[in-house]
Write a structure and sequence with these properties.
about 800 residues, 20 helices, 39 strands
Length: about 800
């Protein structure tokens, strides 16, 4: 155990051992801090219309094994992003899936009694298959653990996990017809069509093993020759009386193996009343042998209760790195649930021995340390589109070791394939939105002092991502990059396609490429690459080529160079990916003061303030239950291109409006219900919206995404009475407020380490060194303070 780990554990124990007193008006009540910390996480928040990877309570932070119930995961996913998996409005469960990632889903396990069924059935007619009805009062979810009673069978199902091993425990009634169902070869979640599958049973070892090969929709688009492979090896604590296989409805009794699309296996048991059957499953993305190794190394001697205890301890340790004290239980639930999602997403894809899937289909090997353990972990990931306004800022402050591994992951893919990929499904290109911000994320890591990787390789990968356009691999995104570089803008071609000839999202792409060029330019400057710096800095000015000064909107340009006529700034998708001109006009995060100057400060502030005033009426993103509810509105907190906009007032003469509107967004966009959670059924994208709430409630955010040579956070409106953070550098950061409250969102004064502070930002380096920030709050702006911020 290293010194850093010891210091974090000592801090955690010290805080945990204090008598926490949840403060309420007029009284103080003693509570158990450990129990309360987990109780503030509600995995069921926002589960109406949620994505496949969103609801996986039985998992550990950044883990591979992510178990959760599935209500409609078997329904297919035509375009690869639809909301399937678990929906709190549904009333039956088809089973429990073992792997949940972006474009990755596999291994549905279930249990039943009575006449055997080997298809899941439907929500409309659960009796068609092994699906079971359930009651909400019989369901419990917390970080690392899930339990539900399957009413149709009087079976209690429980789930927990280690990093690479999933545990399932079923408590049966007395019956001779108790079944475990292993549905291996059918499409699940975002996995795409199944190409092949196999499952077999080893009678001597009482072991079940298998694999599935899938063809996700985003792999089909961005790497057509690719596929995603998943493997498992499982042990059962009770010998079955009968083993059989199936291909959908067709059942094969006494069959010990089967291969093909739709392949599955069932195990029959004779059980006493309340007898438990435990199944633990090692997973791998490389081989059955490594799945077996993962199972043995991580969980060979563990039973369900021991695994649950370890999962709980892991979550307490990670969530406990940020300790919140406040009178508002609701805000603490929002905070810790958001933090939970930020730590849950983008999970492990390498094995205990360092094996990991390569882009070209081979198996890679992570170098081992002198102690014989992998020198870094390899991860799957959704697109990093917008992640620099939430996840990477949180990682840089509290989880830099994960951020470093994330960079190593993308560099491993670059070394194998020659390109960076915005999103990864077992190393396969899944670009998400067809752009690519990985270069920016790498640059921000370097500027944040996170550099335990080959820096020269990292710069080359980032530089090429911004400038290399000839024969560009579609999986690397930015196939319209050539026009951006050669003419400064991208030709608008109506439709949904992007190519070297232009794009239906031409304006938003030009703005994004300008921003990422700036980020990598600063990286170049920091390591002495002066020629590259000047080249990239010039490209970062291209946002001006799509800015129409007559209307003060960004606007599509045609091949002729003219701005598009009959222009509607409310129109989504017409030159703008997942947004419109009202929203994207503010997408100049690398040069906010230049944008303010271009529009005129008075007009900029007036327009932006009115946008939020109107948008508050729709809770800042629309109240329709839809992933794209807000794309046609003035503002859309539910989607990445908007997430920096409320912070732009800090670059004007009205910085207090950032404090007002960020606080209002935290209060109104974010909810604590199944439907009103992260907006209304909007796309949380593996922790992005949760991490935005975490950073914003701390009162810290960087519009530039930590891309400057000395990155800093702009100051907002801290939400809590006191927050104690064990940062990722062995130091403690304390943020406390005085006179805070629901309407007291304006900062009156700031102290840093006991000294008055008069800037609108604070350096990341200061926070890394450990600091105490004290804010005095009030219900009206202190304009004298804000004048000092200019």
């Amino acid at each position: 155990m290293n010194k850093y780990t010891i210091s974090v554990l000592l801090l955690f124990l010290m805080i945990s051992c204090q008598t926490t007193k949840e403060e309420t008006v007029g009284e103080k009540t003693k509570t158990n801090p450990t129990d309360k910390l987990l109780s503030y996480v509600d995995p069921n928040i926002g589960t109406a219309h949620s994505r496949w990877f969103f609801y996986t309570p039985a998992a550990v932070p950044f883990g591979m094994a992510k178990l959760g119930p599935s209500t409609n995961g078997s329904y297919g996913n035509e375009q690869g992003w639809e909301a399937v998996g678990y929906d709190q409005r549904h009333q039956s469960i088809e089973g429990f899936a073992g792997l949940h990632e972006f474009q990755v889903g596999g291994f549905l396990f279930s249990a039943m009694t009575g006449a055997l069924k080997t298809v899941p059935g439907t929500l409309e007619d659960p009796d068609m298959g092994y699906r079971s009805r359930f009651d909400r009062e019989d369901e419990h979810a917390q970080p690392g653990y899930y339990r539900v009673k399957l009413k149709d069978y009087d079976v209690v199902a429980e789930l927990t996990a280690t990093k690479r091993v999933g545990f399932l425990r079923y408590t049966f009634p007395e019956t001779k017809q108790a079944y475990l169902i292993m549905d291996i070869g059918n499409q699940l979640g975002e996995s795409g069509a199944v190409k092949d599958a196999s499952v077999w049973y080893n009678k001597e070892e009482n072991r079940i093993e298998g694999w599935v090969v899938t063809y996700p929709e985003y792999v089909k688009k961005y790497q057509p020759e690719g596929e995603v492979r998943m493997f498992f090896s499982g042990m059962i604590n009770k010998k079955p009386t009968t083993v059989g296989t199936f291909l959908k409805e067709r059942q094969f009794k006494d069959s010990l193996s089967i291969q093909g699309k739709g392949a599955g296996m069932y195990l029959q048991f004779s059980t006493r009343a309340k007898e438990t059957v435990e199944l633990k499953m090692g997973f791998s993305y490389t081989s059955v042998e490594n799945a077996r190794l993962n199972l043995g190394k991580e969980a060979g001697g563990l039973n369900f209760e021991q695994a649950k205890k370890k999962a709980t301890e892991t979550w307490l340790q990670e969530l406990g790195k940020i300790r919140v004290s406040d009178t508002s239980e609701v805000n603490k639930v929002k905070f810790y649930t958001g933090l939970y999602h930020a730590l849950l997403g983008r999970g492990l894809a390498s094995d205990v021995n360092g094996a990991f899937p390569q882009n070209d289909g081979s198996i890679g090997q992570i170098p081992l340390t002198e102690q014989g353990v992998p020198s870094f972990n390899f991860y799957n990931t959704d697109s990093v589109w917008g992640a620099f306004w939430n996840l990477t800022q949180l990682w840089a402050l509290v989880w830099p070791e994960y951020y470093n591994d994330f960079i190593q992951t993308h560099l491993a893919v670059y070394k194998n394939s020659g390109w960076l990929s915005d999103g990864l499904a077992n190393s396969k290109y899944v670009s998400g939105v067809g752009t690519n911000f990985v270069g920016l994320v790498i640059a921000a890591a370097y500027q944040s002092g996170i550099r335990d990787y080959d820096v020269d390789l990292a710069f080359r990968a980032a530089y090429e991502n911004e400038t290399r356009y000839r024969d560009r691999n579609e999986g690397a995104g930015k196939t319209d990059l050539g026009q951006f570089i050669k003419q400064g803008y991208i030709d608008y071609i109506p439709g949904w396609d992007t190519s070297s000839e232009g794009s239906g999202f031409s304006v938003s792409h030009a703005l994004e490429y300008s921003y990422s060029s700036y980020a990598v330019a600063q990286f170049a400057k920091s390591i002495g690459k002066d020629k590259a710096y000047k080249e990239l800095l010039a490209l970062s000015e291209n946002w001006k080529e799509v800015y129409d000064s007559e209307t003060d909107f960004v606007r599509p340009r045609l091949a002729s160079g003219e701005f598009l006529k009959d222009f509607d700034p409310f129109a989504p998708w017409a030159g703008f990916q997942e947004g419109n001109a009202w929203q994207y006009t503010f997408y100049v995060p690398h040069a906010p003061r230049a944008l303010v100057k271009e529009m005129g400060e008075e007009k900029f502030v007036r327009r932006l303030d009115s946008i939020f005033t109107i948008s508050e009426k729709t809770k800042f993103g629309g109240e329709e239950i839809d992933a794209f509810a807000g794309v046609k509105y003035l503002y859309n907190q539910g989607n990445q291109p908007n997430l920096h906009i409320a912070w732009l007032f800090n670059f004007t003469d009205h910085p207090w409006l950032t404090q007002k509107w960020v606080r209002r967004i935290c209060d109104e966009f974010y909810g604590t219900g199944g439907i009103h959670g992260y907006g209304y059924g909007q796309d949380e994208d593996q922790g992005q919206l949760g991490a935005w709430y975490v950073m914003s409630s701390l009162g810290l955010f960087d519009v530039k995404g930590l891309t400057e040579s000395n990155p800093s956070f702009q100051i907002g409106s801290p939400l809590f009475k006191k927050v104690t953070i064990a940062n990722g550098y062995g130091k403690t950061l304390v943020i406390e407020t005085e006179n805070n409250g629901s309407n007291n969102y304006y900062v009156q004064s700031i102290e840093v380490n006991g000294q008055p502070y008069g800037k609108h930002n604070i350096a990341l380096s200061t926070l890394k060194d450990g600091a105490r920030l004290k804010f005095v709050m009030g219900d009206v702006p202190n304009k004298e303070l804000f004048n000092s911020w200019k």
